[in-house]
UniProtKB/TrEMBL annotation, chain A:
Coiled coil is among the record's keywords: yes
Protein name: histidine kinase
Domain PAC per the UniProt entry, residue ranges: 242-294
Entry's EC annotation: 2.7.13.3
Reaction catalysed by this enzyme: ATP + protein L-histidine = ADP + protein N-phospho-L-histidine
Region (Disordered): 1-22
Automatic annotation (TrEMBL), chain B:
Response regulatory domain mapped to chain residues: 10-120
Modified residues annotated as 4-aspartylphosphate in this record: D60
Protein name: Response regulator
Highest rank taxon of the organism: Bacteria
Phosphoprotein recorded as keyword: yes
Record bears the keyword Kinase: no
Matches recorded under InterPro entries: CheY-like_superfamily, Sig_transdc_resp-reg_receiver
Stored Gene3D superfamilies: 3.40.50.2300
């Protein structure tokens, strides 16, 4: 301000003007609002403006209060306001007040016959940019140039500030939309500045609760603290980006996963001064990863188990095949039966299957041909029981097609089941999970299933037990903790299964 | 061919998958081993341990979705050796019995007979 008041000294022609863009090329258009009631004085002003290099002045002159208000109200746009101090129906200070209110960015310079020091000080206090007395009109050039340059700088700065504020707002919006917390650590003080999202990621409502690194560490799961510290140290010393995950226990006791990414900050000597970055609550992702891992382990278990079953089928098929030539067909047909069971169970999301579905898997074609009758109440089977029963039906049906009822034109099979009370051996009682209330009296409800072939060629009992017989008599009996009778009656093969009801075999 | 190391041996088979149990029985019967079981559930296995009459056990780590920790504990308490059979990795074993021998599924008959010969009580 003192410098502005010392207006008797002209500015050196260089300094700020050297950077004046007008020096580089075409003249800068400059719209001037001139409040001046005297035509001669107005011409004098125009004269002096013309002498300023690099600018193309377009002057709009107004003489009255109303015209000034209209011009300012219309907004121009003006780059400069020049105003007389004393006007017939108006005064300069009022004009200044109006201009500051409506066009605060536009420089306002008094050009006056006489002003007096008191008025000058008052004018500058009220926001005038400068003043020129008409007796020394040659100063107008210097004052106008300086005012324009300063206004341009001021406007540029204001634009930059506005852009910065907008950019910050956008960044904040993006961080909030992405649920990204931001943080900054000062190494010399261990002070930590975190955003509210960063605090929320740790289950805290107030960022001040983690105002230091040590207080943050208290929030880190004890098992991850050492790793957390080591990673931070490494990021500071190596300069490599920080990228880590750690667990945190919220004040409500719940466990959450946090991912942190950041980078060290260095001073001009290359000395690390801090660390800054973002944090993200990745608990949902971690839970999904854990589920995926469990699924993979379960898949691995199932595949291994299935391979072991295939191996077992191969070995036992080989042992019981009448000749090596018989092996491939018998083996492949059993593999296909196993695959069919897996298909059905996959369709049922491995939640088990119903007994009629399992029966249909093997017998459906024969049912359609009128050769097989399947009847029984709805019964639910767990996956293991479903696979075993399916393999048993497959063996029975294969045998029937080769040697039994389905090998003769008029042969037929009746597959029926019912839920009926049966007395069961005491030894087996404790092993089964039959919860029917009859257990104490030595009887329980059981699934009683009968396979009866008729109309086929006379049955000759096999001289040695094959794979199917063994699977049904030994495997199935053990698996289902039930009683199995497989009889090669000459009238037709009969099979009777008595399986105590349990969580694995239950009525619907 | 009978392995001398398996003579007069009785093995309890704890396995819920009948096909695999049958295959184990075949392999062991071929070697002159006497088989008990198969026990397909934890409760059945515990009953059969109670009844006794075997020298060593083959123990599937998961029976119908149930872990066999209780079975392993009971065998260990009774001083009866046992060998895990599993489709899982070693991490699926009961915590207290990680040091026990393990045979991964699917296995060769030789893996079973050799392990039984090595770990049977003297």
């Amino acid at each position: 301000m003192a410098q502005l008041l010392d207006s008797s000294v002209g500015r050196p022609a260089d300094s700020p003007f050297a950077e004046d863009p007008s020096a580089l090329g075409s003249p800068i258009p400059c719209r001037v609002l001139l409040l001046e009631d005297s035509g001669i004085d107005a011409d004098l002003v125009r004269e002096h403006l013309r002498m300023i290099d690099g600018h193309d002045f377009e002057v709009q002159r107004v003489e009255t209060r109303q015209a000034f208000i209209d011009a300012v109200g219309n907004g121009g746009p003006f780059d400069l306001i020049l105003s007389d101090f004393d006007l017939p129906d108006f005064d300069g200070m009022s004009a200044l007040a109006i201009a500051r209110d409506r066009l605060p960015r536009v420089p306002f310079i008094f050009v006056s016959g006489m002003l007096g020091e008191e008025n000058a000080i008052e004018a500058l206090k009220k926001g005038a940019t400068d003043y020129v007395v008409k007796l020394r009109m040659e100063r107008l050039q210097v004052v106008v140039r300086r005012a324009l340059v300063e206004a341009r700088d001021r406007n540029e700065l204001a634009d930059k500030r506005k852009a910065l504020a907008e950019s910050e707002a956008r960044l904040r919006f993006a961080l909030e939309a992405g649920r990204l917390g931001s943080w900054e650590l000062t190494l010399s003080t261990n002070r930590l500045h975190v955003s509210s999202i960063c605090a929320a990621n740790l289950g805290l409502s107030d960022p001040a609760e983690i105002s230091t690194y040590d207080r943050l560490l208290e929030r880190v799961h004890p098992g991850d603290r050492e790793h957390q510290q080591a990673m931070v140290r490494q990021a500071v010393t190596s300069g490599l980006p920080l990228d880590m995950e750690y667990r945190t226990i919220w004040p409500d006791g719940s466990l959450h996963w946090i991912q942190v990414r950041g980078r060290a900050i260095y001073d001009k000597n290359g000395k690390p001064t801090g660390l800054a970055g973002v944090s993200l609550n990745i608990t949902d992702r971690k839970k999904a990863e854990e589920r995926q891992l469990l699924l993979l382990e379960e898949l691995n278990h199932r595949v291994k188990n299935t391979l072991a079953m295939v191996q077992s089928i191969a070995k036992q098929t080989l042992r019981t095949a009448p000749s090596v030539e018989d092996f491939p067909d018998a083996f492949q047909s059993r593999l296909r039966a196993l695959a069919q069971a897996h298909d059905l169970l996959t369709r049922r999301h491995w939640q088990g299957a119903s007994l009629s579905e399992i029966a249909a898997l093997t017998l459906e074609p024969h049912v359609h041909a009128g050769r097989v009758r399947v009847a029984g109440p709805p019964v639910n089977l767990t996956t293991g029981v479903a696979v075993s029963l399916h393999l048993a039906f497959h063996e029975l049906a294969t045998n029937a097609a080769k040697y039994g009822a389905l090998s003769a034109e008029n042969g037929r099979i009746d597959l029926e089941w019912e839920i009926a009370p049966v007395s069961i051996p005491v030894a087996r009682d404790a092993g089964s999970q039959a919860g029917t209330g009859h257990a104490s009296s030595g009887s329980t409800d059981a699934l009683v299933l009968r396979w009866r072939e008729s109309g086929g060629p006379p049955v000759v009992p096999p001289t040695r037990r094959g794979f199917g017989s063994r699977l049904i008599e030994r495997g199935l009996a053990h698996e289902l903790e039930g009683d199995v009778v497989l009889a090669f009656d000459s009238a037709g093969v009969r099979c009777r299964l008595v399986i105590p009801l349990s969580s694995r075999v239950s009525p619907q | 061919m009978t392995d001398a190391n398996l003579s007069e041996l009785t093995v309890l088979i704890v396995e819920d998958e009948p096909l695999i149990a049958m295959s184990l029985e075949d392999a062991l019967l071929d070697q002159g081993v006497t088989c008990l079981g198969p026990a397909g559930s934890v409760s059945t296995a515990l009953q059969m341990i109670e009844a006794g009459g075997f020298d060593i056990a083959l123990l599937d780590v998961n029976l119908r979705g149930e872990r066999v920790d209780a079975v392993a504990d009971r065998l260990a308490a009774a001083g009866i050796p046992f060998i895990f059979t599993t489709g899982h990795g070693a991490e699926g074993l009961p915590e207290a019995h990680r040091a026990r021998p393990v045979i991964g599924k699917p296995f060769r008959d030789l893996d079973i007979t050799q392990a039984l010969a090595r770990h049977r009580p003297r």
